Amino acid sequence: xxxxxxxxxxxxxxxxxxxxxPGKLEGCRQQAIDGHKEIARRAREAGADxxxxxxxxxxVNAGYHVNxxxxxxxxxxxxxxxxxxxxxxxxxxxxPALGDLIAEKATEKGVFTLSHQVxxxxxxxxxxxxxxxxxxxxxLKVVSVAGWCTVHSLESSKLLGxxxxxxxxxxxxxxxxxxxxxxxxxxxxxxxxxANNGTFTISxxxxxxxxxxxxxxxxxxxxxxxxxxxxxxxxxxxGEGGMHDTAMLFGALGWxxxxxxxxxxxxxxxxxxxxxxxxxxxx
Length: 283
Prior knowledge:
Elements: E1 3-10, H1 15-18, H2 30-45, E2 50-60, E3 64-67, E4 71-76, E5 88-93, H3 96-108, E6 113-116, H4 125-134, E7 141-149, H5 154-170, E8 174-180, H6 205-220, H7 223-236, H8 244-253, E9 262-264, E10 269-271, E11 274-276, E12 279-281
Parallel strand pairs: 1-8, 2-7, 2-8, 3-6
Antiparallel strand pairs: 1-12, 3-7, 4-5, 9-12, 10-11
């Protein structure tokens, strides 16, 4: 019987890669990188053999989708930020049986979900950036779930989260479950000076204050209050991918019956208008 051995909400900002390179941004995201490494250390210590990443950079317009490939290998350049992420080499093993089981369990709940084992279906950077720091030796199997859901309800994403948990428990996999996406996500308008110069700023003070309140609720374990505000939070603060990754995460954790707390790993930080953080949730 499998289990979730670690659950977290994580950042995947492209400037983490720039932080590795010589130049004016060298070292700027070291605390976020260190957070990824610490999260992975804890997961391995708990016996993780697989990572399920809910990726808010995988956009889908109908149904839910799981990338359940046997093997992932390629060189990734971001269409969104080709000047930030280019020629990123990767190679990981997949976990097709678990991916198929997630789709099966979700569809049984009335949430139509497809599992794909297609050699040319690449991973997106919401998966690739964290795997760079969490899975550098490629010893953990990878399953990616589409988290940028354009015509989906948070309720159905909650049910998909439940299906993820049920599938894991019915498998033989010990899983690190990651909701890969920001908190608030109002990127600077392109015509604004900050669009290309606001690497360390947030676009709205309102968003920062709501982000900080959300972190307070998570750390206090007041998850039921957070879930009541989630739909408005996702809309008013432009949550990345509609915050469907977060709905899936809490669906997997038990939704308003979840009794755990969040632990911020490192610190909250603004990036190009958005609010970013790494948070581990107790199990």
